[in-house]
Amino acid sequence: MSDTPKDDPWTQGEMSSSSGSGQAESGVGSGPAESADSAEVLRERQRLAQIESMDRWIQSVLVEQRRGRRWKLFFRFAWLALLLGVAALVGYALLMAPGEERVQARHLGVVKVDGVIDSESPANAERLIEGIEAAWESPDSAAVVLHINSPGGSPVQSQRVYNAVMALRESGDKPIVAVVEDLGASGAYYMAAAADEIVAAPSSLVGSIGVIYAGFGLEGAIDDLGVERRIFTAGDNKAFLDPFSEMRPEQQAFWQEVLDTTHQQFIDAVKAGRGDRLADDPRIFSGLIWTGEQALELGLVDRLGTLDEEARKWLDEPRVEDYTPSQDAFDRLARRFGLGVAQWMGLPQASSPVRYQLP
Question: CATH number for the 108-210+248-357 domain, one of 3.30.70.890, 3.40.50.2300, 3.10.20.440, 3.90.226.10?
Fold first, then answer.
């Protein structure tokens, strides 16, 4: 920015030095003129210093502006990339969601029953019934298949699916088949009992027709720790399941009656679904679980096989189509996180303490 010539005597002090040397050589005193020259040189140097300082300031401002523009561009591109990523995920979910486009050919309409049966799990009645009805109504599905791999769970959710399958079974001629993969126990077998036929692999585990409630009696532990339990109720038996309170004999008898009643509902449903195919063996309803081979002898299943074998049995060209409704990934994550936090904090759950489920 400086426009000072290289040989400027004002900046290099040549005039001053030459003036001084001339004075020394001539010996002539020039005090007032020398002071005026020195003041002029000082002012010129101050002006040049100001120009240089201004130049540095302008340069720093320009650098900051360029840096700020770079960060703005970076954040804009980052937001754009994020939006594009979300849009791609949504598009993928919409395009890949099962049930949107069906195979236009004869196939088995499959609904998957995976994991614990519960209103807050993927294997909930509302979702399963939606898939079962869609497979039933499809003109291209040769049969509806419940593909089961579950230890059971909620009695109410199991009963809802059972009732829906029984209603379809009685209203039309499309077969409904339950195929047990690794495990079809308790509430999962409750659902399967409504199907026209039950198929299991030789090593599948089937049965467990019983009811369970599990808890702890910790009243002695808090006495040993010197902890006082404070619980306020209206009703003599309101807190009879509280693990820190002693259960009286009459309360225990009452709770056993609840379990027995629920068990009898299970037994009646299995008998209604399976009919005279069941063997006359009281162990069937004792809560025992059987292999597929044993279950075949007891009439709990109709034949041994797998989903692939069923597709070949029903169709000349084996095809299966998944009718299980898709789940929203964010909703699934939020549910799992909420359940995990609630369990970790010991908060009460909405599901029933009475279970058609393996312990």
Answer: 3.90.226.10
